[in-house]
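Morning run. Coffee first, then this:
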Amino acid sequence: MAEAISTQELAKRIDDEETAPFILDVRAPDQFERWQIEGRVTPETINIPYWTAIEEDEETKTVIPEGRDVVVVCAKGDSSDLVVDVLGLSQMWNLDGGMDAWATTLVPHELHDDDTTFITQFDRIAKACLSYAIGERGAEMALIDPAGDVAPYLAMSEEMNAPITHVFDTHLHADHVSLARRIADETGAVYHIAEGDAEGAHFEYSALKDGEEFELGSVKLIVRSVATPGHTPGSTSIEVDGRFLMTGDAVFVSGIGRPDLGGETEPWARDLFHTIHDKLAGLDHSLQIAPAHYTSRAEAKEDGTLLRELGDLLVNDPVVSIDDEEHFVSYVVSHLGTPPGEYSEIRRVNLAWDNPDATRISELEVGRNECALTG
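And here it is:
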């Protein structure tokens, strides 16, 4: 068996140009085209299907840069393991678990920790998804938009001695299967989502109310902007500790959430315009926007976090700053591509209308999210 590198270690390395390895991706070309390894640095990558890499091993070696660390990637880590053994090069590692493991890897980044209260941003790099754990040690903890892998959230709860008591979805997700209800079921936490997004859902939930407050020890969460449609009819923002605004997919650190996933593109684009200029613009402009997605890891700060001051976003983002409604709507409608076909099925799963097996869920979640519209 070849020497392996974990997905967590690779995630750290591709956030730094000096440590980013060369990637030899040995999946089939169609799988490679759909999604690849990405980080703050886009690593130099070549795709050679594993059967070619093995049968033409000497030729394969000639395209691998000398003196570079190389990570070999396949779907599950088995074919790439064989390729590493056959090529026999030093400084070459197999990605443990392959792209299947990469798909659910969560990388935590600290937003706040004073040894009592904590706010952590989890980055699911493969999907460009962000989720949050918020709470007080020895008291309780809440999760916002959990996705990817249950284990890191449960591990943090245990580490902080803070039982998970509330789980929030800021909106009905379309690009990935939410873990919120599963975690709520496993921990006994209350699951929260806005009525506008859960209409017809086949599960019980606590409907979010505008201005509703939650206290997790000394940390306060305030529900903002409920029923301000745009990305979805019930998109919700949650203000945390007077410092952060978890905006879901309403606005990102760059751009906005696409308003066409429910088939009401122009009306929802108008709603999103008013969400930005009538609702978000009225909040404290020093709040740090902490969204549920991003477009590129290049948007991350040096410490790996993805944040942007609300006032800066409102004034300087090329889409968010459009202050004429007709111009905004025209721009949004004309710049939207076609959403992935899987998104409608994922929405059905998140409403509990469908209950696919784990294999189908993995298939639905392949590839990065395409929820953002940027300038």
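The longest helix spans residues 265-279. Good start to the day.
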